[in-house]
Structures are given as structure tokens and as C-alpha cells.
Design goal:
- The complex is a heterodimer of chains A (250) and B (243).
- Chain A is α/β, with parallel strands linked by helices and 250 residues long.
- Chain A has ten helices and ten strands.
- Chain B has helices at 2-15, 22-62, 72-111, 114-121, 125-129, 131-162, 168-176, 182-207, 213-242.
- Chain B is elongated.
- The mean pLDDT of chain B is 94.
- Classes of the chains: A alpha/beta (250), B mainly alpha (243).
- The interface between A and B is medium-sized, with 25 and 16 residues.
Chain lengths: 250, 243
């Protein structure tokens, strides 16, 4: 489980996050949603340690991650998988080398074992046989899937996903969402997803946190979101005519 | 300026922390050595031959007097090539070839979140990205400069073949006359220091890139400009200390 307590983040005079506390439980898709500039990605980066919170603490299974130095964080980082918005695959490496990279650095597995794991991960994301391709030869959806394969290669306990659907067509978006959801359930991973895609919210949002102007404005599940009377959340979720019509039919 | 220098020193300290797995880092060092050394051999060969030839022709022109022995052209060309032309001009050219590549490569990795991905995995990103480049720089750039010296002197010889002012035998005699080994020490010192400056300054500029494609270009330009200035400054310091 991941717990964040009273997180603040300030850039200069700009207070981006204000007093955010939440718990993210294993085996569930924990979504952080909000409009652009609401602080979703900043919160995610504070949780994984890419940004240091100005105030507040992050706990991974009770361990105070915020107060750890780089070396102390390494054992926890080995249990973290992350899918970046633009996949962040290493350009100079093939798909296979990208997946093997963390295994090569942090495990004593033989080359055959690493290849077997890479093939398993690729199979898991439906990209069998694409081992030797470079990231520049992949489509956006394929890059995301390779990113997921790399993220799960070390069998992570925690999976962080930043805007998994950005730049993807609706069908591929749903495939990616379903894949993340399946992996979360199958391996009991604590998954935290930053998104503003309403299909993801309604489809896989087991636990949702809505950020507004850097503050936690609402917390609940996708089943509760349709019935909320929170004005800001309604304005965000039901911004489109389609979503308003769908709500009216509920 | 002091903040930047502090950040530069801290980045270097992080770069030379104990690697997570030596074999992975060793592979990176080898890859960088090939890229820096073999990849730059062509441009170094071309500029060295031309600089050596031009140096010989210009020295011969300036010293065309019956009172000066013609072999002096070879001696002056040799010392100029070893002391200045090969280490400094080659390093300035290598800043454009190797330094800009380092800054833009690391800068692109920064803006496309590849460095964040390394950090999330628990990899010491400066160690993995910067240390192999610096090691490759301080080993391969001196080797390239040795090649440059040899080709520069060969270029001078080729110029003498076509020159009516000085004969190749005079040039060879001059090369062998009054050789002072200190010039080689100065050349080697410059090569190692310049190799370090090119790789570390450009890597620093790339590593702290913020923004997008435009900023990556600006980082590469800044890295090259700062490296060139630092090289010329270090050139002055080393020359005044060792000569």
C-alpha cells in the first residue's frame, strides 16, 4: 500500500499541491484525475521521488520514502514500475534491450533467463516477435505496450502510469487500460494512474482522486462519480455533451 | 556562475559513484570509446593533414631568408603541431563533433523523460550516462591527438613535396633536430584536460536541459561555446605552467 500524507509542493511562488493525503491499495486501479494544470503529474512525481515534496510524506508499505536518501530508496525503486506519458523508451536500445535493461543491472539472471523474461513480458502485452525493433520503428500504442512490458519486467509491487491514453485512438486506449487493469489484478500491484480520459475513469477507476487547483477535491469510485453533486467534478467529468447525455440516461 | 559551478562539481561527484553493475557500465564505456574515437578519426585525419601542410608552407614563407637554414621549417612546424595545432585545434573541432553530440543526446533523454525512467529504476543516471562519456573522452581524445600529430607532420611533408621553397629532406632534418620531449608532455596534458572539458561540460549542459527541442539545441550550443572557452583558458594555463 502507498500512503501520502499532507503533501505540499511549491515551485517558487506557485503552490502546485496543497495538503494532499490519500491511500492507494494493492490490486486496485487508483486514478488521479483533474483538468490540465491541476497538479496530477506533479503529485505522481512527488510520490515516486522525481520531485521532493515541499512538505508531507510518502510511505511505501509503511516505509518513509520521503526521508530516504538515493541509496536507501534503491530497494523500493526496484519494486516500482513506471509508464511515462511518452513511454520514455531508451532510443538507442531495441525493444528487447529496453526490457532487459533493469534485469541486467539489478539481477544476477543469466542471459537466457533475461531473454525468457523479456519474451514473457512482450507476450503479456501482445507484442511477441518485436524484440529487435527500435522505439523509432514502433507506433504510439506499441511504445506504450513496450513501456508496460519494461515496467513489469522486474515484477513490480507498485506501478505508476502517467497519461496512458494520451495520443492514442479510443480502441488502443481501451486495450491499454484493460491491460493495466488485468496486470494490477493478476499480480496484486498497487497501481496509480494519472489520467483525464473519461473512458479510463468510468472503465477502470476502482479508486479515484479528483484534484482541483492543487487540492484534493473529491475521492470515490467510478460507481460513485456519476452520482456526485460536487460541482467542479461534474464540470470536469461531464464536460462533453456525450457524457451529459450518458448521465441523464443513468 | 558559482551556482552553476557548484552544480557541475556535484554532478561530477554523482557521476563517479560506485556503479550498480560493473559489466553494464564497462559495455557503455566501450560503446562511447568507439563513438568518440573511431567516429572522430575521419575529421581529425582531414584537418590534421591540412593544418600540418599549411603550417609548413607558412613557416617556410616567413623564414625564406638565406641567413636561416631551411631545416628550421621542420623544427618549427613540429613544435607548433605538437604544442598547439594538434591538441588545441583538434579539441575545438572535437567539441563540435563529440561535445554537441553528448549535450544533445543527454538533453534529448532529459526532455523525453528517459533520465527520469533511469532514476525511477534506481539507476544512478549521471553515473550511467556521464561517467562512460568522460572516461571515453580522456582516453580516446589523447589517442586522436597522437594520430593528429602524426598526420600533421605527414601533411607538412606532403606540402614540401610540392613546394619550391623547402625540400622534403630539409623538412625531415628539421623534424629530427633539437627535439625537446617536454613538448610531448605538454601535448599529452592538454589532450587529457581538453578531453575532460569537452565531455564533462557538454554533459553538464545536456543533463540540466529543461523544455523541449528548442532547449536541447540551446544546450548543445551552450555546451560547445563553454567548452571552447574553457579549452582556450586551460590551454593558456597549461602552456604557462609547463613551458
Amino acid at each position: 500500500m502507498i500512503e501520502i500524507k499532507d503533501i505540499y509542493k511549491t515551485f517558487g511562488e506557485n503552490e502546485v499541491l496543497k495538503a494532499i493525503s490519500a491511500k492507494f491499495t494493492p490490486g486496485k486501479n487508483n486514478l488521479i484525475i483533474g483538468s490540465s494544470g491541476s497538479g496530477k503529474t506533479t503529485l505522481l512525481k512527488c510520490i515516486v521521488g522525481l520531485h521532493e515534496p515541499t512538505k508531507g510524506k510518502v510511505f511505501f508499505d509503511g516505509q518513509n520514502f520521503t526521508d530516504m536518501n538515493f541509496e536507501e530508496r534503491v530497494p523500493i525503486r526496484k519494486e516500482i514500475g513506471m509508464l511515462f506519458q511518452n513511454s520514455a523508451l531508451f532510443d538507442s536500445m531495441t525493444v528487447e534491450q529496453n526490457i532487459i535493461f533493469p534485469l541486467n543491472l539489478f539481477t544476477d539472471q543469466s542471459k537466457a533467463e533475461m531473454l525468457e523474461r523479456a519474451n514473457f513480458c512482450l507476450e503479456r502485452v501482445n507484442l511477441e516477435g518485436k524484440n529487435k525493433l527500435f522505439p523509432s520503428e514502433l507506433s504510439g500504442g506499441m511504445k506504450k505496450r513496450v513501456g508496460i512490458a519494461r515496467a513489469i519486467s522486474m515484477q513490480p509491487k507498485y506501478l505508476f502510469v502517467d497519461e496512458p491514453n494520451s495520443g492514442l485512438d479510443p480502441k488502443t486506449s481501451i486495450l491499454i487500460d484493460e491491460l493495466i487493469s488485468e496486470l494490477t489484478e493478476e499480480y496484486n500491484i498497487t497501481t496509480v494512474i494519472v489520467t483525464h480520459d473519461m473512458n479510463s475513469v468510468m472503465g477502470i477507476g476502482d479508486h479515484i482522486i479528483f484534484l482541483h487547483n492543487g487540492e484534493k477535491w473529491w475521492e470515490g469510485s467510478n460507481k460513485e462519480i456519476a452520482r456526485t453533486d460536487n460541482q467542479e467534478l461534474n464540470d470536469f467529468v461531464f464536460a462533453s455533451k456525450f457524457m451529459r447525455a450518458a448521465k441523464a440516461r443513468l | 556562475m558559482f551556482t552553476s559551478f557548484g552544480k557541475y562539481i556535484l554532478l561530477l561527484r554523482l557521476s563517479f559513484k560506485k556503479p550498480e553493475k560493473f559489466s553494464v557500465y564497462w559495455n557503455e564505456v566501450m560503446r562511447e570509446m568507439v563513438s568518440t574515437g573511431i567516429g572522430s578519426l575521419g575529421i581529425i585525419a582531414i584537418i590534421s593533414v591540412f593544418i600540418g601542410a599549411v603550417a609548413a608552407i607558412q613557416v617556410a614563407f616567413q623564414l625564406s631568408s638565406p641567413l636561416v637554414p631551411l631545416s628550421i621549417v621542420g623544427s618549427i612546424s613540429r613544435d607548433s603541431t605538437i604544442l598547439e595545432f594538434s591538441p588545441t585545434i583538434s579539441s575545438l573541432v572535437l567539441t563540435g563533433r563529440v561535445g554537441s553530440s553528448i549535450a544533445s543526446q543527454i538533453g534529448t533523454m532529459r526532455v523525453t523523460e528517459q533520465i527520469d525512467a533511469l532514476e525511477i529504476m534506481g539507476v544512478n543516471a549521471p553515473g550511467f550516462l556521464i561517467a562512460p562519456k568522460i572516461i571515453a573522452g580522456v582516453t580516446m581524445i589523447p589517442l586522436l591527438i597522437i594520430v593528429s600529430v602524426a598526420l600533421g607532420l605527414a601533411g607538412g611533408y606532403m606540402a614540401c613535396l610540392t613546394s619550391s621553397t623547402i625540400t622534403p629532406s630539409d623538412y625531415i632534418a628539421g623534424l629530427q633536430d633539437g627535439f625537446n620531449p617536454v613538448t610531448v608532455t605538454v601535448c599529452a596534458t592538454k589532450a587529457i584536460v581538453f578531453g575532460f572539458i569537452i565531455t564533462s561540460v557538454c554533459a553538464y549542459n545536456g543533463y540540466y536541459t529543461e523544455g523541449g527541442a528548442l532547449e536541447v539545441g540551446q544546450s548543445a550550443t551552450r555546451g560547445v561555446v563553454y567548452s571552447c572557452i574553457m579549452i582556450l583558458f586551460a590551454d593558456l594555463i597549461i602552456s604557462s605552467m609547463l613551458l
